[in-house]
Structures are given as structure tokens and as C-alpha cells.
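Give me C-alpha cells for this 205-residue protein.
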Amino acid sequence: MKFRRKPTEAPAAEPVEDVTSQEPAQSGPYDSSSVPDDLDRIDLGSLRIAPVPGRELRLQVNEESGDVAAVLLVGEDGAMEMQPFSAPRTGSLWDEARPQIVQDVARRGGQTAERQGRFGTELLCQVPAQMPDGSAGVQPSRVIGIDGPRWMLRVTLLGRPAVEPEDSAEWEDGLAQVVVHRGDQAMPPGRPLPFVMPPQARRSD
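Here you go.
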């Protein structure tokens, strides 16, 4: 696993080996207390990620604090960013978070729409952005929220799985294999769950 620094964040990349003998999980993401299989996963603390064929694992690292801010699976046609948060014992943190996301997108001049997907209510977002050639364009994303026992997993899809949600089963299968580890520590709802840097990770500029 390698770290490639950017001005504001340093993703760590690790090529992911193909797993051909495993059937994709259909009912995850799972809580760490009730994982139904023995699939080998990379332990990142609050998230445990199974290898996905054709995907590269990266860690987004905050330059100032050095803490891991998010985990990504990156492929040729898109990317999937995952961020786990603490949540209350009852209620849906995702129901509370969705209006906040809608307001943030609107503040930036964008638009949102809801759809029902495999994991429940999703948000399709369109945010104005500057294209690589300098022209004005739109950045599409697809945001999924999954409520678990005292945690919520926020997932942002970019690229083809964001603009073609009906044809993103392989990305969703990868998400369904994720395990969330909440831990027993007391945390207020909405606080990011901590990641642990793998010992084999190394930074590179």
C-alpha cells in the first residue's frame, strides 16, 4: 500500500487482487459483531474492506492532522468513497443527514433528486465544477446512506456508477461486502469513526 500526496490529501493505493471463488454478499454492509462469512478483508479500523476485482484501495489522508478521512475503491469507470459515522441507538441518522446534504448542494448551486436503490433512499447530486480543461461543467455523484447498529455508513459514488445507477451492480456488490466496526467507545452521533493505518502502508510524494 502506497501513499501519493496531493496538496490537501494523500491517498494510499494498494492493488487489489482478484477474488474469483467468493460469491458477492447480498445483505451487507455488515456490523463487525455479525459477519456471516470468512472472506479475507483489509482491516482499517472502523472499516474492513474485501478485495474487489478491478478495484484499487486508496486512503484519503488529511495533510494537517495525518488522520485517514475516508476510504476509496477506485476503478477505471469510477470510484466509491466510504465514511463511517457514529449514530444513536434508535432512529435513522441517514434520514437526518439527507436534508443537510441537499442544503449543501443547493448552497453550491447544484441540484439533488432522491431515488430508491438497493440500500434504500439515495441522493443523486449535480454540482457545478470546473473541468480539467478549465471550462464550466457539472460533477455528478450518488450518495448512499446505510444505518447500522450505532453507526451510519455514508457512501459517495463517482463516475459511471453515479450516472448509471441501474448498471452498477458490481460496485454495489463490493459495498455489500464491507464490514463496519463501531467499537464500544462513547461518541456523539455524527462523529466520524476512526480509521487505523495498515502497518504495510508507506508514504510517497
